[in-house]
Specification:
There is one protein chain. The chain contains 15 helices and ten strands. By secondary structure, it is α/β, with parallel strands linked by helices. It has a ten-stranded mixed beta sheet with strand order 2-1-3-5-4-9-10-8-6-7, sandwiched between helices.
């Protein structure tokens, strides 16, 4: 069996497919061979018996449409994984559940349509926890198959880490992009709320649902984001020119949620960034994290219950335990509590942005998860450290940041979460590309 992880960065892969130095038919066969060898261990994709034949058929149509390499779109032939809550023409949507997939039909997701227009081919649907909540599917972490890949975008993160394709879509309502990206050692990007259209994606909690993406590096995330985000613009001049960002650590009870191992790793990451030229402030922030967390939980439970009201009445026996309990909890949320939770999103955003303005902060930095991926496949880890940034709708990104025993020793991956200003996704991704090499041992900013 080949190694369970492989390098497949988006930008050079896309460039090679466009110019033909990586022949598309050959690439499809290589990736399908890899899937055949590794999927029994990783289980990142939903089964599709005729996947290779379908991809060859779609590749032939793409080659006929774009015979001239100079005219090919930016993602020509790129294989993309889609979390199985995204509607895609030609694929059923099951959402990790036992409910009839006909319930979830509808027009193709806008994000999927944008990728197809950019030349991408759908590799397949990726495994999700049931309805993007906590009941996990079978996916294993490619770095250590006895550990969770995280969730709810389990299969998308694992597929990119395994080198099945250089890009996958996921969603985040609490921590379902940032956390699995960290656990699987890849880049996960959650944009500003509503920056990537959510239509065509099975809703969880419309007030805080985000479309996100997974790639193997920050440059790839920037390329994908530029094609998916509404109103994409060149980044801020200082970010584009290579000025390192001014960083802030949110000290206080929020950060205290990290496990000891995760906190030690984060302190090492901060020290490394400071030693390589970054200015880092330590600011008291999110002192009310317990209240923010409760507001968010009320919000997602109530809106999830509303989405599933009719389905649960008709098919309640088919729901798994965590999903059923969330519906029951959501039905009990008072209207006043739901209104307060919705209002709290803008309030928290204003508080965090005011702190950034007062101190000239460009990015918050914090752990992407309490620690490395927990052992076992029965749970997907704790999203507590992602929750406030999702609640506020701020853009966030995970950067790979070493491993528990050192990458060369095969340790479990660690991630650093960086958070930007509202609607400043372009700057966040530009700065991510500057910070990424600084987190690697032995690298320094020029």
């Amino acid at each position: 069996m080949p190694p369970l992880t492989a390098s497949l960065p988006l930008r050079p892969t896309a460039a090679a497919l466009r110019c033909g130095s990586l022949p598309l038919r050959q690439h499809i066969d290589a990736q399908c061979d890899r899937l055949q060898a590794l999927e029994p261990a990783i289980r990142a994709l939903l089964p599709e018996p005729e996947r290779r034949r379908r991809l060859h058929r779609e590749a032939e149509a793409l080659l006929q449409r774009y015979p001239d390499p100079e005219a090919r779109p930016p993602l020509f032939g790129v294989l993309v994984g889609l979390k199985d809550i995204f509607r895609a023409d030609g694929f059923p949507t099951r959402a990790g559940s036992a409910l009839p997939p006909e319930l979830f039909g509808g027009p193709e997701a806008a994000s999927v349509a944008r990728l197809r227009r950019a030349g991408a081919l759908v590799l397949g649907k990726t495994v999700t926890t049931e309805f993007a909540y906590f009941d996990p599917g079978p996916t294993a972490n490619p770095h250590e198959t006895a550990h969770t890949p995280g969730g709810s975008s389990s299969g998308s993160a694992a597929a990119v880490a395994a080198g099945y394709g250089p890009l996958a879509l996921g969603s985040q309502t609490v921590g379902s992009v940032i956390r699995p990206a960290a656990f699987c050692g890849v880049v996960g990007f959650k944009p500003t709320y509503a920056r990537i259209p959510i239509d065509g994606v099975l809703p969880f909690s419309a007030s805080v649902d985000h479309v996100g993406l997974f790639t193997q590096d920050a440059a790839g995330a920037a390329l994908a984001a530029s094609l998916l985000c509404d109103g994409w613009q060149p980044p801020l001049a200082e970010a584009a020119a290579g000025r390192l960002p001014v960083l802030a650590v949110p000290d206080g009870p929020y950060l205290d949620q990290a496990a000891p191992e995760g906190r030690r790793a984060f302190d090492d990451h901060v020290a490394r960034l400071e030693s390589r030229g970054c200015v880092v402030h330590r600011l008291p922030a999110l002192s009310d994290i317990a209240e923010v967390t409760q507001r968010h939980r009320n919000l997602v439970a109530a809106e999830f219950a509303a989405v599933h009201d009719a389905w649960f009445r008709d098919y309640g026996s088919l729901y798994r335990p965590h999903s059923a309990m969330l519906i029951e909890r959501g039905r009990a949320v008072a209207g006043a509590d739901l209104a307060a939770a919705r209002a709290g999103r803008a309030q928290l955003r204003s508080q965090l942005q005011a702190s950034m303005e007062e101190r000239g902060i460009d990015l918050w930095i914090c752990p992407a998860a309490p620690g490395p991926a927990p052992a076992g496949l029965g749970a997907t880890g704790d999203p507590a450290l992602n929750l406030p940034w999702t609640h506020a709708g701020l853009p966030a990104l995970t950067l790979p940041a070493g491993a528990t025993a050192g990458a060369a020793a095969g340790g479990l991956p660690l991630g650093l979460q960086i958070v930007g200003r509202f609607r400043a996704d372009e700057a966040l991704l530009a700065w991510a590309q500057l910070l990424e090499p600084l987190l690697a041992p032995g690298q320094a900013h020029p």
